[in-house]
Structure prediction request, 298 residues.
Amino acid sequence: MPITAARRHSGDGHDTRAVEDRLADLLAFLRRRLAGEYEIDEFGFDPELNDKVLLELIRPLYRHWFRVETSGLEHVPDEAGALVVANHSGTLPVDALMLQVALHDEHPARRPLRLLGADLVYQLPVLGHLSRKSGHTLACPEDADRLMRKGELVGVFPEGFRGVGKPFRDRYKLQRFGRGGFVASAIRAQVPIIPCSIVGAEEIYPKIGDLRTLARLLGLPYLPITPLFPWLGPLGLVPLPSKWMIRFHEPVRTDEYDPEEADDPMLVFNLTDQVRELIQQQLNQLRLQRGPAFPPFL
Prediction:
């Protein structure tokens, strides 16, 4: 047999085994689901469904569409509880999903990120159910405290809708970080705060206007107008393929304070401002490092 034919035959065999392995995994997964042999925690988190289905659906976006580069993962602990605090942008919260993929797939410990979501998320039947299945929970101090004390990695976007819904002209300008509730939670749980900067989300749906009247009728915080939406209908919902970079920074320690100091408004304000300024500075540097938002495809 010629060498090239032998190599082709060997490659075909490897591909066949890979397909068979994936099929066996799928059948085993379906068997466990039908038999109820899977675990869900008190918040509704379903780790197997999250890894095998939910994250699998968005991994192509992370790897091939946004070409995400992640750095600073050595600042994220392998096991202990911590609070990841990131900037929020992009009109739709795609940055939250990409952050989940980054920590699950890139971190050596494959850490699930337990994101804290707004009330609106859990008022939508399908979205609220899937959010809980993927590890999200309501953004309230009680849930955040319990998760971090259990050693979970919790994620929060203090800008909320002010950040994700800001106009394109204000891109990469951090909005107000609320009252610092995330800092108080970290102090009470005695876990580090890990600032995180995300570059790339600002360009996926450039918000150039807002259908405010219709948004109010629908009970939404905003209804964006972008260069493609609503003009192209459903096609306008396809995100632009901007280049993304996610960087985790050195932790801000909270175990230097007593848990009771979480009620000190001045301490909370100062730490909140420190985290916000650090993220803003790193955003500016990361934008310069990235260069154009839409580099030529190779």
Remarks:
- The first strand starts at residue 69 and ends at 71.
- The longest helix spans residues 3-35.
